[in-house]
Each structure stands twice: as structure tokens, then as C-alpha cells.
Amino acid sequence: MAFVLVAAIAAAMGTATADGAEGRKVSLGWQTSCGVDPGGINRSGGAYVFHRSSNHCSGGIFKQRSEINSGNISVGSKVSYVFDTTVSMKTAQSDDFILFQIHDGRIGCSPPMSLRWTGGDALRFDSDYTRGKGMAGCVPNRGLRGAAYHGPRLRRDGTPYHLRVTLAFDGQGGFDVSVAINGSGVLSGRYEPSSDPKFVTSKRFYMKHGVYSQKPFDYEMKSVGMQVLRI
């Protein structure tokens, strides 16, 4: 596991070319998450373009969702992936939104890992354990939520940022995560499943990408050259 983690972090922190020379490109079966309003997601060439949409998924308190999700990743798989794309956000608003997630299908609580673009134009992790009782069953996972961001101010004027999220799944329901912006590491941590039987055990993982926010706001976010590499 130590070798896998070192290799994964090196890929995220390094300056490898965008074609993923250090890994093998894989197809994870991306599709629209729960549906969107007309014009919520457009695809042109190698770019996804996300706009405001009402939330068509059930559960939770977030009112706006324009996201795509991958197919399932087995919880029992010991495997490392890099999610790689160039994102740009254009909006006059400073609302928080979720940019990327590792989800397990739960309803209500934060998933094992969400990557939040904050109102202060930084990144942070969200993560909960859940008792499976909607929002009333959420317990914050301080291990990931306490990670510190060490990166640039992320502008919302259409400035592009090369985003790489490296994930090393341990086959036991946990994973290491490292985030790089423009080739420099900015945020890292580990999701460790709870051993307490009162919490729901993840049966699957999958990736989500787009804009997911508690409050609706107007925006245009582009994700160019999105790919997933197995390393």
C-alpha cells in the first residue's frame, strides 16, 4: 500500500502531461446525475458546460444540482485513480458549491468525500459518517474536514485551473485523497471508515463532478479534457 500511495501522490503533485502518460485512461461510464433542467449540462467536443439546475435527486437540503456521475467502483478493489480536468467558474456570486465527490449512494449526509469550492475561493473537504436516518443521522468526519488548504485563491472570472484528484482505494472501504491545482499539491487527507456498527457501511463508491450547492445561483462552469487515469 505504501508504494501505491507514494506513486499516486507523485502523479498528483507532478507535472505530467495532460494526456496522462503516467497512467492508463479508463472509461467509467459517466452519465447525468438524476437528470437536470433543460440547458443544465451541455457537452461540446471535449468540454462539459454546467449551468444552474434544480436538484432532481431525492433527499438532503441542497437545492441546486448540475452533475455527472461515474459507474461504480468496488469497495473491495485496491486501486488508484486520477481524476484530471481543467475547470473554470464564471459567476458574480460567492456561494459555496461542491465540485467533485466520492459517493456511496447514501441519502442526506455528506458522502465519504466531497471537494468544496468555498465562498472564500479555496478548497476544503466535506465528509460524514451516517446512521442512515437522513440529515438526523449525520456525524462529521473530522479526519477529512480538518485538512488545511495550501493553494491559490480560485477566481470566479473564468480563469482555468488544472485540477487533479488522486485517489488510492485500499480495498477495505478507505482511501487516501490528494488534490493538486496547476501541478501543485493543495489539499490531502484520508477517509477511514468507522468501525462503529451504528454507522452505515459503504457498499460501493462512484465519482461525481459538476456543481452542487445548497442555494441556487447563476453560473457557467466548464470542465475541459476530463479524464480518469488508472495508475
Describe this structure in words.
The chain is mainly beta and 231 residues long. The protein is 7% helix and 42% strand. The protein has two helices and 16 strands. The chain has helices at residues 2-13, 142-145, and strands spanning 24-26, 31-32, 41-44, 47-51, 64-69, 80-90, 97-103, 113-117, 123-126, 128-130, 138-140, 161-169, 175-181, 184-191, 206-213, 220-230. The strands form three sheets. Strands 1, 3, 4, 6, 12, 13, 14 and 16 form an eight-stranded antiparallel β-sheet that branches. A six-stranded antiparallel β-sheet has the order 2-5-15-7-8-9, with no helix packed on it. β8 and β9 (123-126) form a beta hairpin. Residues 1-21 have low confidence and may be disordered.
What are the key terms here?
231 residues, mainly beta, 6-stranded antiparallel β-sheet, 16 strands, globular
Topology at a glance:
Blueprint: H1 2-13, E1 24-26, E2 31-32, E3 41-44, E4 47-51, E5 64-69, E6 80-90, E7 97-103, E8 113-117, E9 123-126, E10 128-130, E11 138-140, H2 142-145, E12 161-169, E13 175-181, E14 184-191, E15 206-213, E16 220-230
Antiparallel strand pairs: 1-16, 2-5, 3-4, 4-16, 5-15, 6-12, 6-16, 7-8, 7-15, 8-9, 10-11, 12-13, 13-14
